[in-house]
Amino acid sequence: xxxxxxxxxxxxxxxxxxxxxxxxxxxxxxxxxxxxxxxxxxxxxxxxxxxxxxxxxxxxxxxxxxxxxxxxxxxxxxxxxxxxxxxxxxxxxxxxxxxxxxxxxxxxxxxxxxxxxxxxxxxxxxxxxxxxxxxxxxxxxxxxxxxxxxxxxxxxxxxxxxxxxx
Length: 166
Description:
This protein is of the alpha+beta class. It has helices at residues 8-38, 45-65, 131-147; strands at 2-4, 75-78, 82-86, 94-97, 101-106, 111-115, 120-123, 151-152. The protein folds into two domains: 7-65; 75-152, Pleckstrin-homology domain (PH domain)/Phosphotyrosine-binding domain (PTB) (PH-domain like, Roll). The chain has three helices and eight strands. The longest helix is centred in the first third of the chain and has 31 residues, at 8-38. Keywords: Membrane, Transmembrane, Transmembrane helix.
């Protein structure tokens, strides 16, 4: 199962925002830098550095908006062997093998995987923009963990028993 967490339409809006913000920062920083260097009798170094920083930040924003600096895909992927995810366009990719997971704790805004080596890996599902997609991801993890007999929220599948009618 593969879910793209950042739809194409939303990605286009984000790039447009970066382009507009970058242009605004370049214009404001350039005006401020020009004013500091050419119209002042004495150049103030901190103001010049701040103005240059605005220009540099604007160039980076404009490059992101124009795809010169690429945004990574935010995704969730799960198969019988592993879970892979990146929840933000600048975040790093996480990969977990199911056979290394000891238990799973699922709450409203995050999923915590307790690994067999004692390490915790947190997946902030609150960072997923669409609430129904976040719920789908949590449900899929819950079902897969139950299928693999991994404890979910402190309840292991081995503890569950069905009582027969007497």
